[in-house]
Amino acid sequence: MEQEIIHIALENLRQITGIEAYWQEKGPLDGVLNLAVNGQNHTFVIEIKREVRTHQLRQIEDYIEHYNNLMLVANRIFPKIKEELRQKEIPYLEANGNIFLKKEGLFLFVDTQKPLDIEKNKGNRAFTKTGLKVLFYMLQFKEAINLNQRELAEKADVGLGNIPQVIDGLKETGYLIPLNNKTYLWENRKALLDRWIAEYITVLRPKLVKERYALKGNWQEIPFDNQKTVWGGEPAADILTNHLRPEKFLIYTRENRMDLIKNYRLIPDKNGEIEVLDMFWQQNESKTAPPLLVYADLMLEGGKRNKETAEKIYNEYIQPNL
């Protein structure tokens, strides 16, 4: 997929601007890109992605600290993200030929081309709706890969037949290395986390949306049955870190509409403050969704407050399990 993105991007760049560019796969990250502009050669270390979402900006900024000649190459970058990249003067190139580059007396900016259709996961079952549920469990519990398949299916709350397909998908994408027939070694779980968040946002989360409710009184006093209903997003982040005063409210639940009205006096309201999503995992007694999901919620929502709090959750709850 990465090779396809870079080749399409360079061909479109050549057609739009006349600039010749050459990619060498060997090198740091996803290789080295040489641009020939007005008789001058410019070299960039490149990071290739299918899409670029808000939650991935932190990783890109980390790369900039190590590679001051970094260029981001992606199949598609959403307008809000492109604006943020330009503000930070981070070079980027989209597969459609749109480019931003401001460096060493060189300024290129093309933003006229329509996005190309994004090719989906070519049937990789690790990143389907069900596969993402399995990965959600495995990203929280590193040792889960060596559970027997029936137990893993029960823990992830999916059918047994899905597990071999998910494992094959992880091997195909290089996140799992087989040591023998029954034992596996993880590879680059941080990259897998980033991909899980990106796929969760586009594949799984839209299927979870129920409706919105009005919030009456203090959110902290709502007596949820925590095996069925928990806070996500900003309220959960506040509970986990005591660092974020919630402005938007998110609930994950297994309860139906009548239960939410009867048990918690929530009032259905399409403009209400509380967004309600289906709970897709087996919940313990915690008042919040798992930290990994709270982290994803914050990165999806974006904003300085949420990013700072997400960083705290990542360092305390997530990184030790990667």
Which key features would you list for this structure?
322 residues; alpha+beta; Trna Endonuclease, Chain: A, domain 1; Arc Repressor Mutant, subunit A; 3 domains; seven-stranded mixed β-sheet; five-stranded mixed β-sheet; 40% helix; 23% strand
Topology of helices and strands:
Blueprint: H1 2-17, E1 20-24, E2 32-37, E3 40-52, H2 57-66, E4 70-77, H3 79-87, E5 92-94, E6 99-103, E7 106-110, H4 129-140, H5 149-156, H6 162-172, E8 176-178, E9 184-186, H7 189-208, E10 209-214, E11 229-232, H8 233-241, E12 249-253, H9 257-264, E13 267-268, E14 274-278, H10 291-301, H11 304-318
Parallel strand pairs: 3-4, 4-5, 12-14
Antiparallel strand pairs: 1-2, 2-3, 5-6, 6-7, 8-9, 10-13, 10-14, 11-12
Helix pairs in contact: 4-5, 4-6, 4-7, 8-10, 8-11, 10-11
Please explain how this structure is put together.
- It is built from 11 helices and 14 strands.
- The chain is 40% helix and 23% strand.
- The protein folds into 3 domains: 109 residues, Trna Endonuclease, Chain: A, domain 1 (3-Layer(aba) Sandwich), CATH 3.40.1350; 63 residues, Orthogonal Bundle (Arc Repressor Mutant, subunit A), CATH 1.10.10; 115 residues, no CATH class.
- The protein is globular.
- By secondary structure, it is α+β, with helices and mostly antiparallel strands.
- The chain has a 7-stranded mixed β-sheet, with helices on both faces. A 5-stranded mixed β-sheet has the order 11-12-14-10-13. A two-stranded antiparallel ribbon has the order 8-9.
